[in-house]
């Protein structure tokens, strides 16, 4: 018996290595010259990883037949013995794969490295209902609903954030991290961090920002504990229900976005857990449930159409039907734009789910032909102002030191050259200079022009003092 409830509260195989998610280049290896302009990486395919879940207890007790095999880390055989179909993907993880292996092998660390460098990176899990999407992204429901603290079961989300916090902690960029968390349920966007809002949020489009959700809460966090509070609160507010295929089925698409703001970069990591596709069965006659399933299937269908258009060399440059669903609007940048995308296809191993498994794998095979053109836009002006401010501070220190030397030479009786009197205090005589120094000291913004003239003034004076 199923019953929906809303909880209250608060091809062809791409060569691994040919893809940016498999190239391990750390931040400090990027040449400085490259960092200072709008960066565009060569076109890269969407990376697709497939995870096959193990038999559930019920399937095991019923003696369900297994029809999915993983001969190696890049291939899958699906179907009854002698009639198997072969598929190849970037990464294939079998039923025995641990959560740790999933995180290490699917290309997630590279995705986070690139988000820190300023790219817009997205990972999304998709597949039939009950195929293991939520387990892969956040770990089993027991972690959130039953208070289990088994760290080995933590999903990609927790592992990714732990890795991200480690990366930004080691950097001198002074990164700030912010999170937002939303769900799309029946084509309506709800803020999972502010569930008391009586209305759904609007998805707007702008030339500069692309599609975005208006008035969505954004919360700053500093460590894994504060991130986990955000995640747990949001998870408890998600729409879920129990049905024949899954006791805790997510009935909405969820998108958790982590904004990574550096000195001149604004990277983004989006983690998307799609609602499972599900066939409507006899007896599922409750109108609300039919509408819910219809909406899930419709937005997944639109996603499928966008993917088909994106891999078609002719259609790709024409109209892509992103606007047909909120999900595709919000994923438009990850799929067809300047982002980097990792797709995780989850499949069940049993004969009873063969058709759905084949659908998911065909969908994934098409998706891995999508090409992205990853791009990071740096705010060069902001970066320039910061470097001018640093240079001015350095020159002022040098200036101070030179004046001290001059003063001690004078006191030692070297004779009044007049230089000390001439130069000491000369920098503070200009009101503009005093204002700029105050600005630099308080960290308030100064214009680039006034910073440049101050810099030149300091350099001239230091030359004279030397
Ligand atoms: N890799 C795995 N190892 C062990 N158990 C798993 C694994 N993947 C999934 N499961 C179990 O299978 C069941 C279904 O998984 P999950 O809820 O993650 O599916 P889902 O794809 O998110 O479903 P829905 O779309 O209905 O929300 C759960 O009981 C989960 O604990």
Automatic annotation (TrEMBL):
* Pfam annotation, one family: Kinesin
Secretion signal, residue range per the UniProt entry: none
Q: Where in the cell is it found?
A: Cytoplasm, Cytoskeleton
Q: Name one GO cellular component term.
A: microtubule
The record's section on SMART domains has: KISc
Keyword annotations for this protein?
Answer: ATP-binding, Cytoplasm, Cytoskeleton, Microtubule, Motor protein, Nucleotide-binding
Q: Which parts of the sequence bind ATP?
A: 127-134
Region called Disordered, residue ranges: 1-35, 413-446
Any GO BP annotation: microtubule-based movement
Which GO-annotated molecular functions does the record name? ATP binding; microtubule binding; microtubule motor activity
Presence of keyword Nucleotide-binding: yes
**Domain of life the protein comes from:** Eukaryota
Q: What is this protein called?
A: Kinesin-like protein
Q: What is its main location?
A: cytoplasm
Q: Of which family is this protein a member? A: Belongs to the TRAFAC class myosin-kinesin ATPase superfamily. Kinesin family.
Provide the Kinesin motor domain boundaries.
45-370
């Amino acid at each position: 018996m199923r019953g929906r409830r809303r909880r209250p509260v608060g091809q062809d195989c791409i060569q691994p290595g040919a893809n940016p998610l498999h190239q391990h280049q750390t931040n400090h290896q990027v040449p400085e010259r490259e960092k200072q302009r709008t960066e565009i990486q060569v076109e890269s395919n969407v990376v697709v990883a497939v995870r096959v879940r193990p038999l559930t207890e019920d399937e095991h007790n019923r003696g369900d037949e297994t029809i999915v095999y993983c001969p190696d880390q890049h291939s899958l055989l699906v179907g009854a013995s002698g009639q198997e179909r072969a598929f190849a993907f970037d990464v294939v993880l079998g039923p025995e794969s641990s959560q740790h292996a999933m995180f290490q092998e699917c290309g997630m660390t590279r995705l986070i490295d690139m988000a820190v460098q300023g790219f817009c990176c997205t990972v999304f899990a998709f597949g039939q209902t009950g195929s293991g999407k939520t387990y892969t992204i956040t770990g089993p429901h027991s972690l959130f609903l039953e208070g289990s603290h088994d760290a080995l079961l933590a999903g990609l989300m927790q592992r990714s954030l732990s890795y991200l916090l480690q990366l930004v902690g080691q950097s001198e960029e002074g990164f700030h991290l912010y999170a937002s968390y939303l769900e799309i349920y029946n084509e309506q966007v709800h803020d999972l961090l502010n569930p008391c809002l009586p209305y759904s949020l609007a998805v707007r489009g702008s030339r500069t920002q692309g599609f975005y959700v208006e008035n969505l809460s954004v919360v700053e966090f500093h460590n894994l504990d504060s991130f986990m509070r955000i995640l747990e609160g949001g998870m408890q507010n998600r729409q879920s229900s129990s049905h024949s295929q899954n006791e805790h089925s997510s009935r909405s698409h969820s998108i958790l976005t982590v904004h990574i703001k550096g000195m001149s970069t604004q990277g983004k990591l989006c983690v998307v857990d799609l609602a499972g596709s599900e066939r409507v069965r006899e007896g599922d006659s409750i109108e609300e449930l039919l509408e819910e399933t219809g909406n899930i299937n419709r937005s997944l269908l639109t996603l499928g159409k966008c993917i088909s258009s994106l891999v078609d060399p002719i259609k790709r440059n024409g109209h892509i039907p992103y606007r047909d669903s909120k999900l595709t609007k919000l994923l438009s940048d990850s799929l067809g734009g300047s982002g980097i995308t990792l797709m995780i296809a989850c499949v069940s191993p049993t004969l009873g789910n063969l058709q759905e498994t084949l659908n998911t794998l065909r969908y994934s095979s098409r998706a891995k032909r999508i090409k992205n053109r990853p791009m990071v836009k740096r705010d060069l002006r902001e970066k320039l102002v910061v470097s001018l401010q640093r240079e001015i501070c350095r020159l002022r220190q040098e200036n101070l030191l030179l004046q001290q030397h001059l003063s001690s030479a004078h006191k030692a009786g070297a004779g009044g050259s007049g230089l000390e009197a001439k130069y000491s205090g000369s920098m503070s005589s200009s009101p503009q200079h005093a204002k700029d120094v105050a600005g630099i000291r308080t960290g308030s913004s100064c214009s680039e022009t006034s910073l440049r003239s101050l810099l030149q003034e300091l350099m001239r004076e230091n030359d004279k003092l030397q």
